[in-house]
Amino acid sequence: MQTEIITRALADLTRLRIMRLLAHMELAVGELAHVLGQSQPRVSRHVAILCESGLAERRREGSWIFLRQTATPGATGPDAATLPAAVARMLDVAEATDPAFAARCTQDRRQLAAIRSVRERHAADYFARHAEDWDRLRAMLTPAEDVEAALCRALGEAPLGRLLDIGTGTGRIAELLAPRSSHVVGFDRSPEMLRIARARLQHRPPGGWELVQGDFAALPFESDSFDTVILHQVLHHAAEPAFPLAEAARVCRPGGRVVIVDLAAHQREELRERHAHARLGFTDEQIAGWLAAGGLEPAAPLALPGHQLTTKIWLAERRHGDHRTLQHKAAA
């Protein structure tokens, strides 16, 4: 039955074109409409059919709706694992044997370069508008390349598995660690920052990463679903750091690791007003207490002194059979 639904969903040239495009990158519905040369309501109807068949899925980021192909269309029978590969092979054959369809797909793919350029220009414009504030903050911190090198050393050489980058911001840490991960999820509250992250990650293979919008105190992920969880320069934005750390511990599988990169405790009050820092850094005791309460075993922290502020890396491993409800303790 699922095979018949998928076959009907693909019995349309526009939907075939959409699937070929999604094989290259995740696209907003408006971007699809631009490439296809069709109205957004019409494209939305095609998108609905593909999503109902399980071939694609929608995800909202603010006012934008993004579409991506599902890794495994929604089959439940014995052919569930082979259907995605069968669909991909069918579309490959269609493009190889039908010159008109191949020409159309080639023309569609040329439009993707323009979409990538627009995204990158949007990101550049954002940083141009905030350049003065960014430069002032960077002057206080440990150089980013030194922090990234220390983070990679702290993580070791083993594969990182499924990685969650909480507060992904520009997507730099997701980009840095993606080659060592089986799948990367960049998570952020701000649609603006997610669009910047997408501009950074859009050149990577489409099946290996995704971006999700939401609140880091209520992660929309199943428990025990990630091998590595990173909070890079995001915890100081939390009025109650216990809550996002509880969620990080919850979604980290037993034996997995949670890594916090943030500022050591300091007294630079101007960061509250200028950069929306809710917390002026953290002590080792604070971090260790929150990690231990979440069933995480902290390692010795690493300090990276900067010009005026010190960046620290705290790493902890999720203990087997010891997952506590830190949110409940914090609420109490």
Total number of domains: 2
* CATH homology-level superfamily of the largest domain: Vaccinia Virus protein VP39
CATH architecture of the largest domain: 3-Layer(aba) Sandwich
Element-level helix/strand string: HHEHHEEHHHHEHEHEEHEHHEEEH
Largest sheet: 8 strands, mixed
Here the CATH topology of the largest domain equals Rossmann fold
Return the structural class.
alpha/beta
The span between the termini is 50 Å
| SS element count, helices | 14
Beta content comes to 15-25%
**What is the helix content?**
40-55%
Write down the CATH class of the largest domain.
Alpha Beta
Rg (C-alpha, Å):
22 Å
Task: For this entry, give a set of tags.
single chain, about 325 residues, alpha/beta, Arc Repressor Mutant, subunit A, Rossmann fold, 2 domains, 8-stranded mixed beta sheet, 3-stranded antiparallel beta sheet, 11 strands, about 20% strand, disordered C terminus
Structure commentary:
By secondary structure, this protein is of the alpha/beta class. The chain folds into two domains: 2-121, Arc Repressor Mutant, subunit A (Orthogonal Bundle), CATH 1.10.10.10; 132-331, Rossmann fold, CATH 3.40.50. The protein has 14 helices and eleven strands. It has helices at 2-9, 13-22, 29-36, 40-53, 83-97, 99-129, 131-140, 144-155, 172-177, 191-201, 242-251, 270-275, 284-293, 326-331, and strands at residues 27-28, 56-61, 64-69, 161-166, 181-188, 209-213, 226-232, 252-263, 296-298, 302-305, 310-318. The strands form two sheets. Strands 4, 5, 6, 7, 8, 9, 10 and 11 form an eight-stranded mixed beta sheet that branches. A three-stranded antiparallel beta sheet has the order 1-3-2. Helix 2 packs across helix 6 (99-129), helix 5 packs across helix 6 (99-129) and helix 6 crosses helix 10.
